[in-house]
Automatic annotation (TrEMBL), chain A:
Component of the Mediator complex. It holds the Pfam family Med20. Keywords: Activator, Nucleus, Signal, Transcription, Transcription regulation. GO terms for biological process: regulation of transcription by RNA polymerase II. Component of the Mediator complex, a coactivator involved in the regulated transcription of nearly all RNA polymerase II-dependent genes. Mediator functions as a bridge to convey information from gene-specific regulatory proteins to the basal RNA polymerase II transcription machinery. Mediator is recruited to promoters by direct interactions with regulatory proteins and serves as a scaffold for the assembly of a functional preinitiation complex with RNA polymerase II and the general transcription factors. This is Mediator of RNA polymerase II transcription subunit 20. PANTHER family: MEDIATOR OF RNA POLYMERASE II TRANSCRIPTION SUBUNIT 20, UBIQUITIN SPECIFIC PROTEASE HOMOLOG 49. GO terms for cellular component: mediator complex. It comes from Chrysolophus pictus (Golden pheasant). The gene is MED20. Residues 1-24 form the signal peptide. Belongs to the Mediator complex subunit 20 family. Transmembrane segments: none annotated. It is found in: Nucleus. InterPro entries: Mediator_Med20.
TrEMBL record, chain B:
Belongs to the Mediator complex subunit 17 family. This is Mediator of RNA polymerase II transcription subunit 17. It comes from Chrysolophus pictus. The gene is MED17. One of its GO terms (molecular function) is transcription coregulator activity. GO terms for cellular component: core mediator complex; mediator complex. It is found in: Nucleus. Component of the Mediator complex.
Amino acid sequence: MLPSLKHIKVQLKVLLLFISGQTGKLMYVMHNSEYPLSCFALFENGPCLIADANFDTLMVKLKGFFQNAKANKIESRGTRYQYCDFLVKVGTVTMGPSARGISVEVEYCPCVIANDCWNLLMEFMQSFMGSHTPGIPSVFGTKHDSIYSPADTMVQYMELFNKIRKQQQVPVAGIR
Amino acid sequence: MAGVPAVRISIESACEKQVQEVGLDGSETYLQPLSMSQNLARLAQRIDFSQGSGSEEDEPGSAGRAWAEAGADQHEEEKFQPSLWPWDSVRNNLRSALTEMCVLYDVLSIVKDKKFMTLDPVVQDPPPAKQNPQFLQLISKKKSLAGAAQILLKGAERLSKSVAENQENKRQRDFNSELLRLRQHWKLRKVGDKILGDLSYRSAGSLFLHHGTFEVIKNTDIDLDKKIPEDYCPLDVQIPSDLEGSAYIKVSIQKQAPDIGDLGTVNLFKRPMPKSKPGTPHWQTKLETAQNVLLCKEIFAQLSREAVQIKSQIPHIVVKNQIISQPFPGLQLSISLCHSSNDKKSQKSASEKQNPEDHLYVLEHNLHQLIRECHKQTLSSTVMPHPASAPFGHKRMRLAGPQAFDKNEISSLQSNEGLLEKIIKQAKHIFLRRRTARTIDSLASRIEDPQIQAHWSNINDVYESSVKVLITSQGYEQICKSIQLQLNIGVEQIRVVHRDGRVITLSHQEQELQDFLLSQMSQHQVHAVQQLAKVMGWHVLSFSNHVGLGPVESIGNASAITVASPNGDYAISVRNGPESGSKVMVQFPRSQCKDLPKGDVLQDNKWNHLRGPFKEVQWNKMEGRNFVYKMELLMAALTPC
């Protein structure tokens, strides 16, 4: 196991988007250090946009259409391990100054179709997570055989962060 | 045509009478046309009696003219009066002509009488006396020839003068024509009354901050009275003072200098300047040398900037005109800028003893090529033209955001290796290649059996070379060719691909390669026995590449093989190790051993045909020039015919 990189962080900013005439929808703007030049913008059940890093400045200019939701910034920061074809990222989820939980991301790099390698991933996770191994993520619920994209990673992170946010202050480790 | 109605055509004569006046009521009064006699009178008036038809000669003509002039004067006076009668002038002219003729007649009749008037001819010069016609011809010819010669001589003199003038001009070589020649090679511009030129690489894409301007000056210090020297040029160039002399980049690999305080010694030696082509003018060589100095300065500036900025495990040292780095432990790579000016002072000190083999010309050439590639990068089509809002860089980088490139993909797009890193990698590879070659050669010269051959590939990369190593026994190359290694020499590692498919990665250590080759050589001997057994008809009883018995080898493992003769009587057992050498034992049948303890276990005589104890062969006393030959002889000796 060689730690190949340090200080990997996944950052989430929650913005509240106001669309005139309708109730405001939540739009999440996320940054992932694995894709350093990209910015992800996604809705809850809607589309996910992968954009250039200049998207942030664009959002600043669109101040008239949205406002920042309260408790808006969540971050997961940790170490990235590369073990042959597997990528394991263990991070601490912090909201402001307080730590809220731990996030573990496991990636099997060679495969792009989730269904094919889910069993292998589960076996790998069981080797070090034991009973905490999660079930298959909901992102793959509908599309079993479509190609995995970075947007799917961000959707999973968003769900995890939402789950952590809705918990109470007492930190219960929420692992996916 | 038949159905067309007829068209009326009316005809009128064109000769109309001239209108004299138009009355108030519109009626016209016509001039009466001239009658026949009036017409004739008009025409007669037009006759000029002073001019006769045909050849009109002197006296009558002049007389007629005089009369005509007199008549004209009369007519001029009469002009004020209206002409009385159209035939007036005609009559006057005729009358005057009659008078003339009468006078002439009278004079001729008087002269004919010869009483009162005679005709006397005018005295003329007597004709010259008739001379000898030949003498006359000679003199006339001589005169004419002299005249022609004079003209020709004048022309020839003029021609020779112009030719001499042309030659003078050529030697003087007009300043403007020389300037034209200069412009064909270098960029010039006029600033005020000075002519400046540019010898930097800025237009080729360089970003070095040196102005690189030279000045063109007229060479006026010539004494026209004295003879113009052969290499006179009316044009001279003045290059900036810091680009004078010649420079080159010296790249060398040495064993590490033990004393770090020894640095700072400027190790330059004056490399003899390359001879310029005989036809080039002196300003061309001067400018080219100055440009080379500028390029070397740019290379060194770029290298030293990178040496300071880029963080590496072992930091690079930049001292004066040297950059020192450590590609491998115990090894030192030094890149220095050697700039020698043309003064007399430095030429004296240039007699230092230098080691020209030390200098890696290939790397110097590669440095020049790399910096030129950097220049081209700034001018490449991926940079220009580009949208005003996009940052500089590869066009693919604009997709990095929307397509979520990860770090591997981004780094593959960006070439983030600097000049120094590239040249260090190249130096490492060159060093590793040289050392590998040296290792193989030293082994080949030291060990005769088995033989080691190296076939180097002609096609190399700056970072990779390959060599094929064959281990064979002399005389048995076709039989024993199981050890063939392909070595791929990289920047820091050597990758060995074995014939049986194994891939082994060796580090840069020399000892590793040597040990590996020695172990392969010992394995070859045992493999050779196996192949020989096939040929000789012996049976292989056991074979192992790495035996676990016997003394432990420090390099690799020992291998062993046991073969039995065709009729089973004898068996040969060989153990070969890289360090321990070869040990050969022969197993004899029991019936041939005399000193066997007789026991009660074996009752039957048939057991005596089995093979019994082993006996070692004194291998160094065997005949044969190499191991396989000896083995063949042994096998042949043990095979009864």
